[in-house]
Write a structure and sequence with these properties.
By secondary structure, this protein is mostly helical. The chain is 72% helix and 0% strand. It contains 24 helices and no strands. The chain has helices at 4-23, 25-28, 32-37, 44-55, 58-71, 86-99, 106-114, 119-154, 157-160, 179-244, 275-284, 289-305, 312-318, 323-354, 374-382, 387-423, 429-453, 457-481, 487-510, 520-541, 548-558, 565-574, 584-609, 613-633. The longest helix has 66 residues, at 179-244. It is globular, with a radius of gyration of 25 Å.
Length: 641
């Protein structure tokens, strides 16, 4: 239950977001680029904070807390499933390659790679726009439902039903405890969650649509400052509880829990401590941990080589002032996000372990504990009044950041890739801004609509991310590194990949397969890649190569490394002084150093909160080495091709 002070803090935060949108309105109206991309004038560190803010969400943090509880220090490897290290690929070379196009959206970028004229180009453009819009709507629906359900934990229906009687499903007409009463009460709670989701989504829509990219970035920066304060408080509170406790926290967890090192097997046995944890780990399927981590690394490398998906991450990169600042922004995300987020994650985890028996944790359908409920249970029970409101304001702001960033990306695709391309290419500034407003409303209507009518939005989110992202990989890898790959190959590769990788999740929803159980998705990934690769090759050789002038312009502007020998020869014939990209070796070194550094940044607060000073010293020393070397091999060479 929230106190009056907590409610006032949350209300003040929402009011600030509304005022911010009004304040940034005139700045956003200057031009199309000012509205959708901040005029490409925002500094890289603000865009980096904004992007990190989009990634610091409630659901993800709840998941990280549950992972830290179950897997301890080894949990830092599990986010490779997503993969979290795609930001390292972006900082090392892909952000610069993408930003050099000077495009407004990922679909518009395709014109720089494949040209603008033939049928294959139009098809590839449409498939990317379709992919991006479906992805955006799915993310918005997920955010809508998630934020409502989370807020209802702290502001339940029972507390607001007298103030908001229209949320009632008529449970008062039945006797308390009867099946009809219980069913009606569940409906009322669902209505309450939907109401919260609508209110918060509309607030996010207001400052996003009115303030444009300027408003979104400034709101994200403010929100991230709040999250830094909250993370520090949560971590320090956990350290104080740990210092005052007579219990050795390591006696409550399996041996090896406090070490990031592992062998062939995971080596964590919860059997004699918490049987529910043992069952959950068996369901997760991480027993052969080295093999699973290896598969996550391989699939993660493939996904990272493809570059950013057409969402808020891609949009922030294209909004930077220069290719060098795009790289700095992507690198800054890991530095600012990992230690802060894991300081909070480990704080919640430690409090969850110390007071596990006192927590009122929910249970899943199988009857086992829902370990993702540890974080909200700790917030409601062990954080002081005022800090609860601040933490909730930060997390609700995180949902709004994700919602608004996704909304902005969807607006960019509707305006640039549909309205300006097919409807009104000669639109004036005022017409473009008006269309941006309308497209924002349309995106929100579809996002909230999906959230209202689809109860199991988490499964739909998994279908979108596992299905669409699975189909995204192969075509988007080949577009960077192989000169012969053309728009027709891109279209058929994307189409085949999306269809093939959407089938297992769809069958899982129907109960025919168990695609989302544990690590099963990893075993399907090679099959998806083979299907996509075959479609890419067949499509590529079914049509002529991309126009030579287009390829030459792309190669000389973006300067990718890879299989570009025929185009390189043309560039040298045209200009004998031309030099290709010779940074492959140093890029690979920086990838290794960057991924290592990212892991160390995640481990740093974990060692600190547990007062493991030897491990902390080693991590700090290794981080210094990584930073010093990368200062020479990456930072000082940002202007190199």
């Amino acid at each position: 239950m929230l106190s009056t002070l907590d409610l006032l803090i949350i209300a003040a935060y929402f009011a600030l977001m509304i005022v911010l949108g009004l304040y940034m309105r005139n700045q956003a109206k200057k031009s199309k680029d000012a509205y959708l991309m901040g005029g490409k004038s925002l500094p890289w560190y603000m865009l980096g904070l904004s992007d990190a803010s989009d990634m610091f969400d409630i659901s993800g943090t709840m998941l990280l807390v549950s992972m830290a509880f179950l897997y301890g220090f080894k949990s830092v490897f599990i986010p490779w499933m997503w993969p979290v290290f795609n930001q390292i690929f972006l900082m090392v070379f892909l952000s610069r390659w993408l930003r050099r196009s000077n495009a407004t959206t990922g679909a518009e970028w395709l014109g720089t790679r494949f040209g603008l004229s033939d049928k294959g180009v139009r098809q590839s453009h449409l498939v990317v726009v379709f992919f991006a819009l479906i992805l955006c709507i799915g993310y918005m629906a997920y955010a809508f439902v998630g934020v409502g359900e989370f807020l209802q934990i702290f502001l339940p229906y029972e507390r607001v039903r007298d103030v908001l009687p229209f949320l009632s499903a008529g449970e008062g007409a039945y006797g308390m405890g009867t099946p009809e009463y219980v069913e009606a009460l569940q409906v009322s709670k669902h209505h309450t969650a939907q109401f919260y989701g609508v209110v918060i989504s509309l607030i996010a829509m207001f400052y996003s649509i009115v303030g444009g990219m300027h408003g979104i970035v400034l709101a994200d920066v403010i929100k991230y400052m709040v999250m830094i304060i909250c993370s520090l408080f949560v971590g320090v509170i956990a350290m104080n509880h740990l210092a005052q406790s007579d219990v050795d926290i390591l006696s409550k967890v399996p041996g090896g829990w406090d070490s990031p090192f592992f062998g062939t097997h995971l080596g964590l046995d919860w059997s004699n401590m918490l049987n529910d944890a043992r069952i959950k780990m068996e369901q997760d399927g991480y027993q052969l941990f080295s093999a699973v981590v290896g598969m996550m690394l391989i699939s993660g490398i493939m996904k990272s080589l493809a570059g950013p998906a057409p969402n808020y991450d891609c949009q922030k990169i294209l909004s930077t002032r220069s290719p060098e600042e795009a790289a700095k922004m992507s690198g800054f995300i890991s530095v600012i996000l990992m230690p802060i987020r894991y300081f909070m994650t480990m704080g919640f985890c430690v409090l969850g372990i110390l007071y596990f028996e006192q927590l009122n944790l929910t249970r899943l359908g199988e009857g086992i504990i829902n370990f993702e409920s540890i974080m909200p249970a700790v917030i409601s029970k062990y954080l002081p009044v005022g800090l609860i409101g601040l933490v909730l304001a930060g997390f609700l702001g995180a949902f709004m950041s994700n919602f608004s960033g996704t909304l902005n990306a969807g607006q960019a695709y509707l305006v640039n890739d549909i309205y300006l391309k097919f409807v009104n290419p000669q639109a004036e500034r005022k017409q473009v801004i008006t269309m941006s407003y309308l497209s924002g409303v349309v995106m929100v209507v579809f996002g909230i609509g999906l959230g209202l009518f689809i109860k199991d939005v988490n499964m739909i989110f998994n279908i979108i991310t596992a299905g669409l992202y699975g189909g995204f990989v192969c075509a988007n890898v080949l577009k960077w590194y192989w000169w012969r790959f053309n728009a027709t190959g891109y279209f058929y590769g994307m189409l085949a990949g999306i269809v093939a990788s959407a089938i297992p999740p769809a069958l899982s929803v129907s109960g025919i397969t168990h695609y989302f159980d544990g690590t099963r998705m990893l075993y399907f990934f090679p099959v998806f890649i083979v299907i996509q690769f075959v479609a890419c090759i067949l499509g590529t050789y079914a049509a002529p190569a991309t126009n030579q002038d287009t390829l030459l312009t792309f190669y000389k502007t973006v300067r990718p490394w890879g299989f570009w020998k025929p185009i390189h020869a043309l560039a040298v014939a045209e200009d004998p002084t031309f030099e290709g990209n010779k940074n492959f070796g140093v890029n690979m070194l920086n990838l290794f150093l960057g991924i290592t550094g990212q892991l160390l940044l995640m481990l740093l607060p974990m060692y600190l909160i547990l007062n493991k000073w030897t491990g902390l010293g080693i991590v700090l020393a290794l981080l210094v080495v990584v930073f010093v070397v990368m200062k020479r091999t990456w930072w000082n060479r940002l202007t190199d091709w």
